[in-house]
Amino acid sequence: MKQCSSPLDIVFVLDSSASIGEPSYEKMKDFVKTVANSFIIGPGKAFTAVIQYGTNATTAIRFTDYMNNTDFNTAVDALPYLRGETRIDKALQLASSELLKERSGARAGVAKVLVLLTDGQQSRAPDGVDLQKAATPLLSAGVRVFAVGIGTEIDESELQLIADKSDDVIVVPSFDGLAARVRQLSIATCQSSGITCNPYSTFRM
Fold it and tell me: Model-level pTM?
């Protein structure tokens, strides 16, 4: 696959809740690595980070932790399976309050993209936050949010609350269907850099 050479800060937000199951969680990590491999990771190019969420959300990889594709992929392989509930709201809040700040390695003046993956719906909890409210700080800051729903238990209308436009909501019937969407997501993400050109002209072999 051709690689996008544009400077971007990309956050992958992984559902690590109990409903996923370990085999599917491994397929989700493979998807993240494949999308990441469509970018050149390093100084002046793409910075990549990962948030995992279950009952809580945690920053697993920060932007400046790994400055090449090989090291990032190795770190993704090592991500543990958390289990627990599906607290999408906590993941979005963490992204906006911590990860997308310069102190965490995010770069001023560089386009920001968040790719959220889930196989279910937001868990109902007394301290739960409406997903539209949780996503608003990200969208207001100009972050392009892609919401990727996998399987039959998702609520597509819920995913629409997270993304700014319907084209940024991607729904696949199973984890096996993720691979077919890599190209679509990679090109759309590269275009988010704000470079006005043919989508392939910012890619390098």
Answer: 0.89
Enter the tokens of residue 148: 């990727």
DSSP letters of 54-108? SSSEEEEE-TTT--SHHHHHHHHHTPPP--S---HHHHHHHIIIIITSGGGT--T
**Torsion-angle region of residue 166: left (phi > 0), alpha (psi -120 to 50) or beta?**
alpha
* 32, 77 contact by CB (below 8 A): no
CA distance linking residue 19 with residue 86, whole number of Å: 8
| H/E segment holding residue 190 | helix 182-191
Q: What is the mean pLDDT of residues 29-44?
A: 94
Torsion of CA 146, 54, 19, 155, to 10 degrees: -40
